[in-house]
């Protein structure tokens, strides 16, 4: 069972390489991509099942025990992120259609999607900071190449700021890793947590933590270094943007969830995250209100909603972190749905500007229903998953006595609803004419599966919150993670971690 983490890293990597070597445009390439995505999804379900009871699966490579060798460690948080990423990958692969998105574009995108998945899974599973840095670079490489897939002038222009700001984040990350290694002689997360916990962090360690926070904040698209995000997402090929919208900023959120409770809980970083999260939540949605290009509007929404998650993390209580985990689960599903809808709207309306979309072409039938379900959930209306996510966050803020953050998030929620109503009015409110470009049921089927997952999340909100709370308690107990990783010298079995 402890080989599951390694398999979830190898499967997308091997699939990506195989798809790259295949003749472009062959029907077998598409079938291979769908099969590989399905296999990864099955393995992801297995990993979540294996870790849901509190076990931490550990595998060291090359017979080098931790903290000296390469370590894969999967806990509840890893299992959840890999499952969500695998769901989006499978949906994206099934939605990509050569007849709609271009035969060559699809052929070029498929190998890169699996390279991206390999990097994401590596980041979610690695047990040391240096390999987390390497995984970030794999993700950056795949992202840069995917931006180039459409081959438009806009995609070429958007590539430079995206790569420049992310290279800056990588530089900060690398310097932080070097400082921590120079100070403590290790980059293994479990070993670092024990050494840092043995005394107050040094000045160099505090500087390193600041650099890590900035690097992960850039990846998450937080205020103030967010300009690359809304400028980049409109350049991706249709469904690829949905995968990015769901997962890419969450890589930064994952890194913060992994490192803040483990390494930075005794510093000022959590308090800073509360302020940054609140600012992102409000400023992001205000920027979205002023936008009329649909994907840019949704991109600014990502900034706002990542702010909710980071704010919950910054409060550093089990209830707040659990609410943040529930919120990101809901957001990954719903935001991907909205970007899939945006792709259909742009294709059918022949424009990206909401003001120019013809009501007769924009949205009748199933697509309108999908949008309403996702929009109401994003705005936090009952009985959708977003309602339970926001109630959890609001309750955590009340328990922490943080009234000002509660007020900011309540205002941001109102503006989120207002911006979704704007999209509905401009893109879906018909004038009674006939819809001339309705998508086929087959085209919407994978998107309906994501909508169904979001509805299921609302129906099972109680059980999901229990899982999120158990995950939060596991994150807030660094000794359990360190004990599991460092005690498994052979790397041959799962380490049992009792519930805290």
Largest sheet: 3 strands, antiparallel
Sketch the topology as an H/E string, one letter per element. Answer: HHEEHHHHHHHHHHHHHHHHHHHE
Please tally the helical runs, counting DSSP H or I stretches of 4 or more residues.
21
Low-confidence stretches: 489-500
Mind telling me the C-alpha Rg? 22 Å
Spatial separation of the terminal alpha carbons: 23 Å
Mean pLDDT: 85
Tell me the fraction of residues in β-strands, as a range: under 5%
Helix/strand-derived category reads mainly alpha
Number of strands: 3
Helix content class: over 70%
Please give the order of strands in the largest beta sheet. Answer: 2-1-3
Q: Judging from the principal axes of the Cα atoms, what is the shape?
A: globular
Description:
- The structure is a single chain.
- By secondary structure, the chain is mainly α.
- The protein has a domain of 210 residues.
- 76% of the residues lie in helices and 2% in strands.
- Helix 14 packs antiparallel against helix 17, helix 14 packs antiparallel against helix 19 and helix 14 crosses helix 20.
- It is globular.
- The two termini are 23 Å apart.
